[in-house]
Each structure stands twice: as C-alpha cells, then as structure tokens.
Design a protein that fits this description.
20% strand; membrane; 52% helix; transferase; 17 strands; Beta-Lactamase; alpha+beta; 5-stranded antiparallel beta sheet
C-alpha cells in the first residue's frame, strides 16, 4: 500500500521537513490572500460599473421616453389638421354624392394631391392610406421610401389589417408595426368628422419612418438603434434593433398601459450573450421601451483594471515569498537544535540539556523537554512498583472470581445436608437463593430472556413465601409465545419486592400480585399490579425523576428508579417505567420495552 500513498500528495506531505511545510503553508496563504484581494477588487469594480451604468441607463431611458411620448402626442395632433381639410373630407365622405366608377380616378387624383401636400410637409411620413365607408381606396406613398409603389391590392390588405387592429383595441387610435412589411411604424385611426366626432367616414393609416423616433437618440449615447426595442401596448415590437420578437426576453415582456414604471435592470441572455436589460413602461402611450447593454461591452473598461490588479498581486507575492522563506529558516533553526539534543537523550545521555532560543513556543518546548528528561529517572524508579501493583490487582480479580464458586459449593453442601435430613422446605429455599445468586453475579450480558426473568421472580417469591406464608398470592398472565422476548436483567424483581414490602397489607392475608405481559404494536408491555395501600400519584412520579436517597432495596441494591434509568439508557423515550396508583387503590407498575427476540444482537449493541 505504500506505492498508493506515494501517489497521494497529501500523504507525501507528512514526510517533508518542517521548514518545507512552513514555506508551503505560507505560500498557500499568500496565494489565497492575493486571489481573494484580486477577486474582491475585480468584483467591486464590476459591480460599481454595472451599478453606475444601470443608473445612467435609467436616466437616459427616462429622457428618451419622455421625448417619445411628446413625439407621439405631437404627431397625433398633426393628423387632426389632415382630418380638418374640408376638401379632403368632402371627397372621402362623398357628401356631394356617391363616387361612381367613372368618377373614381378623378377623385383618387385629387385626394392623392392633397395627401402629397400633407406628406411633403413631414419628411418622416412614408405613406398615407385611406378607405372610406363605401370601400373606396385612396393612397399616397413617397417614391424614395421603402415599400413604395403601392397598388390597389396592397392598399386593400393594409386597410383590412388596420381595421382588425382597431377592432381588437376598441379604441379610435392605435400604433402598430408596419402593415406593409417594411421597417416602419404605422398609426391607425378612424377618419372622424371633426365637427361631429361620433361620426366617422372611414379609416386612415399613416406609415412613419422609424427615424422619427430613433433620431431622438443622441450621438455617443449608451442607447442606440442596435440595442433599443420599443413594444406597443399589445406587446408588438415597433422598433426592434437587432433583438427580435423571437427573443425570450421580449416574449416575457407584459406591458401595462395603466402605469408608468421603471425596472432598475436585470441581467438576461439575449441571442446567446449576457446583457443588462433596462426597461421603462409609459403611462401615456402604454409602450414599453427596453435597452439591452451587452455585458462584454459594459465591462470592457475593467480589463485594464484587472491587468493592474494582477500585476500588483504578482509583486506582492514575490516579496511575500522572500519574507516567508526567511521566516521559515528562522523558525526551524531552533527546532533543529532541539532535535540534535533529543538524539543524545535517545542514545542514553540523560544529563544533556536543551538551550532555549527565545520565549516563543519552541523555547517553551525546550524548557519542557529539560523538565521531562529530569523526571525520566524518577519515572523509571516507579516502573517496578507499578508492575507489582498491577500483579496484585490481577490477583485480586482472580480471587474475586473464585469466591462466587466457593459460595455455590457451600450452598450446595447445605442444600444436600437439608435433603439428607428431610428438610425439603429449606432445600427449596436454598435452591431459590442459589438461582438468584447466579443470576445476579454472572456476566453474560445486560439482557436475557423473559422466561429467565420470570424464573428469577419465582425464586424470589418462593423465598418470600417462606416468611409470609399465604399472606399473598401471585398470578402470572404471560403467554408462552413471549418467553423468548429479550428484557434487561432484574427489572421485575424490584417491582415485586416493592409490592411485597411496601404495597401489601400482610396482616390482612388478602394480598394479591398480578404479573402480566403482552405485545402491543411492537412494544412489550409488562405490568406488576398489587391490591395494596397504593400511594399518591405525585409521590410515585417523584420516584422516577427526583434525586431521592431512599430507594426500595432489592437484590444487589437495585431500586425502582434504577429500573427506569437502565431502560431509558438503553432504549430512550418513550420506553421506561411508569405508575398508575392512588391511595387505597393499589399500584400498577408498567414497563414498556421494544419487543425483540434476538438476544445476541441486543447484548452486542448494549452500552
């Protein structure tokens, strides 16, 4: 097995010199300290930068959100001027009569010119589409805009989507993503009669260049078009940047149009990279504005700081190693000197003395070593005396083992003599006493069978019957199937003795003792009951818990409380001894034990 020990670095470490161990331990502490300081500094810097960035992001998004709200309100108000155009309203509402198929091209041209004038006044408008209540379509789109070249089919599809959007919102105005598949933002609203707002002539859709909102971002800002996402009240992305609706972070956004609230930022994973998410929900528009700041970009400034920290740690470790090496040499110098002195003592020179090099632990070790050497001669002189004392003790043990056999032989002689003289009562009494004596002094274990315990009780009762005659009788209610049950030695004899000596009224000659046993739910329940004078319940409980000097004497001074404590020490709560008694009502002693028939196993685990 030594070759296995050689493969274990910790096993080989115990064979190193103390100086090497001290040097290695100091080196480990230095490296651990440098690593802890460097990690703490790096963590603190990253935390500080992240906290500042979160605060800056919130401030920037706050300002940007307010600007977006203003731009939304401004543009919605500007559409009112278009709805107030009398000529446009007259054509769309068909007040002068229905537009026939022959007159539709002329009406379309007039409306397109009016929309052209309105669109040129706002370069951010890319297209305007109108469908009146009679289903006539009118549109204009900027030629240079994305998705230009609209036709009747496309315009009809746009208006179908717009009317479905207004139907879902149950509002007169809605913002949504482009309804023609372009990178735009669309405003959908009913074409209302501004003089009678409960009357509408159709639906109008205005497609805006998303730059209408993104131009609000300042150059060099922490928020830019790539990391910006604007989601409307229904969770549809109006501006996505490079983070699309398929991202898990966007799918988890649940806008709340009723309240405006900030999210102080959380770290999430978007498109495979970790990013800091700052979020603002507008109470005016119901929009949610999100800003994703990649942590790689956020913590780029900490790289230089990490390099500086590593450099400082390397310099610190270098000088610390020099100091540790010098300290290890100084520490082991006195140890080597003490080791040479110990070798001389090992060779038999008890007159040598170690010279303390200081008042530290090693110096005190040298002083104690000198005291040890001075006492060694004294200790050697006592060795012989101690050996004699040990031999004497062993002799006493052997003698103690011989004495019980002498008593057995003596009682056997008396029993034989009584039998030869026809004294059968004395013979039975001595036989019972011999059985009790054997049970009390044999060392075969703390536990034995219930049948053996009952046999000891019968021997004890037989002896007491000689003295008391027929003053009491004993009834046994124990099923033969319980005879193999395992119980501690001498737990019933003290209880029977207590009933005879202190419970029964022998002068009346009506004493009765009942010994019963049964198994209930894996618990062996043994009852010793008498019809004697009884006692107060509080006094009975005090026998088990109080530190009382008066115990009921029994064989080998085993008392009632001793029975309870032995059971508790082996089996714990809820096992043990309890009493049911009252003055003048007799006493019932109840013993609870875990039921088992494995004697050897129980004795092996006994404490």
């Amino acid at each position: 097995m030594r070759w296995l020990e050689g493969l274990n670095p910790l096993g080989r470490l115990k064979h190193f010199r103390i100086r090497t161990k001290i040097l290695l331990s100091n080196l480990f502490i230095i490296l651990l300290l440098a690593l802890a300081i460097g990690s703490a500094a790096t963590f603190a810097s990253k935390h500080y930068i992240e906290a500042n960035t979160r605060e800056l992001s919130i401030n920037v998004i706050d300002q940007f959100s307010k600007n977006v709200d203003n731009k939304v309100e401004e543009f919605v108000n500007s559409t009112v001027f278009l709805l107030n155009d009398k000529l446009l309203t007259q054509i769309v509402s068909e007040r002068n009569g229905p537009i026939t198929d022959a007159g539709y091209p002329s009406a379309y041209t007039r409306v397109a010119n009016l929309l052209f004038q309105y669109g040129n006044n706002n370069p951010m408008i890319n297209a305007i589409t109108i469908r009146n209540n009679q289903g006539r379509l009118f549109w204009w789109d900027r030629p240079s805009a994305q998705g230009s070249g609209m036709n009747t089919t496309e315009a009809d599809k746009i208006m179908d989507r717009a009317e479905r959007e207004l139907g879902r919102r149950q509002q007169g105005i809605a913002w949504t993503a482009s309804l023609r598949g372009s990178d735009e933002v669309a405003l959908v609203r009913y074409y209302l009669d501004m003089n009678q707002v409960d009357q509408r002539f159709g639906t109008i859709v205005i497609h805006l260049n998303r730059a209408y909102f993104t131009d609000l971002l300042a150059d060099g800002s922490i928020i830019h078009t790539d990391n910006l996402v604007i989601v409307n009240a229904r969770g549809q992305p109006l501006i996505e940047g490079r983070y699309g609706q398929e991202d898990a972070s966007l799918q988890g956004v649940t806008p709340d149009a009723g309240t405006g609230a900030f999210s102080l930022g959380r770290v999430t994973r978007v498109k495979g990279e970790r990013a800091l998410l700052a979020e603002y929900r507008s109470a005016n528009t119901g929009w949610t504005i999100l800003c994703f700041i990649p942590l790689a970009h956020l913590l780029a400034g900490t790289r230089i700081l990490e390099t500086i920290i590593i450099g400082v740690c390397v310099v610190f470790i270098f000088f610390a190693l020099i100091l540790a090496f010098w300290f290890s040499i100084g520490t082991t110098r006195d140890i080597k000197r003490l080791e040479r002195t110990m070798r001389r003592v090992e060779e038999g020179d008890f007159n040598v003395k170690a010279t303390p090099g200081g008042r530290d632990e090693i110096g005190m070790l040298a002083v104690r070593f000198n005291m040890m050497v001075a006492r060694m001669n004294e200790l050697i002189n006592h060795v012989y005396a101690e050996r004699l004392a040990k031999q004497k003790a062993e002799y006493s043990v052997l003698l103690a083992q011989i004495n019980p056999h002498f008593l057995y032989n003596t009682l056997g002689t008396i029993r034989w003599f009584s039998r030869s003289r026809g004294q059968t009562e004395i013979e039975r009494m001595i036989g019972a006493l011999t059985g009790l004596l054997k049970s009390s002094i044999r060392k075969l274990g703390e536990f034995h069978r219930l049948s053996e315990e009952l046999e000891d009780v019968r021997n004890y009762i037989h002896i007491q019957k000689i003295g008391y005659g027929d003053a009491f009788e004993v009834a046994y209610e124990v099923d033969e199937s319980l005879a193999e049950g395992v119980v501690p030695r001498f737990i019933l004899q003290p209880l029977v003795e207590n009933a005879i000596m202190h419970g029964l009224e022998m002068s009346k000659g009506t004493g009765r003792i009942r010994i019963a046993a049964a198994v209930e739910g894996g618990t062996l329940r043994i009852v010793v009951e008498d019809n004697g004078v009884g006692m107060a319940p509080g006094f009975a409980a005090g026998l088990l818990v109080a530190d009382r000097e008066a115990r009921y004497p029994g064989l080998n001074s085993i008392g009632v409380r001793n029975v309870h404590e032995r059971i508790r020490s082996h089996h714990g709560v809820p096992y043990g001894l309890s009493f049911e008694t009252a003055p003048g009502s007799g006493t019932r002693a109840i013993v609870l034990l875990p039921y088992s028939t494995h004697l050897e196993e129980v004795n092996r685990h006994a404490v």
